[in-house]
Amino acid sequence: MLYKLLSSILIIASFQGLASELETKPDAVSRLIDSLILATPVKRIAPKYPSRAARSGQEGWVQLSFVVSKDGDVEDVLVLNNAGSNDFIAEAKKAVKKWHYSPALNSNGDAIESCQNSVQLDFRLGKSGISKKFKRIFDRASTSLDEENITELKESIDDINNYKNKNISDLAWAHYLQFRYYLLTENKNEQYHHLKQVSRYAKPATKQMSSTLPESISVDILHRLFIFQLEKQLFTKAMSTFELLTKFENEAAQQFVKSNKSIIQNIQHLVQSETPILVQGELTKNVWTHELIRNSFSITNIHGDLDKLEVRCQHKRNIFTVQPDNQWTIPDSWGQCSVLVEGQKHASFKLIELNQSI
User: Fold this and answer.
1) Which of 44, 59, 131, 277 is the most exposed place for a label (fewest CB within 10 A)?
2) pLDDT the model gives residue 11
3) Maximal C-alpha separation, the chain
4) CA 183 → CA 127, 186, 188, distances in Å?
5) How confident is the model at residue 73 (pLDDT cuts 50, 70, 90)?
6) Signal peptide location in the record (predicted)?
7) Is the dihedral of CA 314, 318, 321, 325 positive or negative?
């Protein structure tokens, strides 16, 4: 099935209008060249737990992207994603801005910015399992789900969203139940959103830490997410999801990995080919991010206002105004890079990854 899916992606990329979108030659090409030594942390402090969240038993996490300056200070902190109280965001940003690094060095030994850094800060109170109040909502939702009673399930989903004092387990199961609801109602956009959220808890158990979700559910979540990522041509994320599945020891995960190694090989062949890779972008939050799998890209079909585009590689960043059909090209030596786009909420566009050697 997945082999056919990837084949269909290649056909879509080749024949659904991409050629016409690329007929206009880019007005400019941006090239970045250098080599360097990574920034290393010197001082990191943990964020303060917000007292209001602690009193109510709320848990959560915040994912941040940031730049390490030439002086080793943390700058330009952006929130990529979060769960739980919004108070966690303020405390996470406040803590990270106090961190200090030994700065990155270029080939001449000069200090330079380190521009692609990310971290997830967890806010946990040491609880395990779902909370008593949430369990009542969860049990009611599970019964409705088993009976495929969409009306009653929707009522439970509303109760879940209105219940603010969730711990980590509550958050995981809340997204899983919402994914199952949108699976029943065939809303693929919401399915993907909640799969992304719940996949953050889909990890194999270790000697140091038990898993939040049962392994069978974690593997199913990651399997479904992998398919979505293929459909959306998010190949860097798809390969990361596949790699995570290799770390599970249960039979379902091992069978999946064994059966679909050829998919990863096909992705690698696709990335090396001249076939354009199309990624649909939409600003549902303040910033849209995408991990590049190639070294060159263009933005086209813009609807709405895009304020700026930032290219963050491990050791360099550039910020641009967004001009349609402009092309950005990055040398292979820079390694993994991300694109961050800011602008009007619900603005949409297409990002097209190209092969461009420099």
Assistant:
1) 44
2) 39
3) 67
4) 30, 5, 7
5) very high
6) 1-19
7) negative
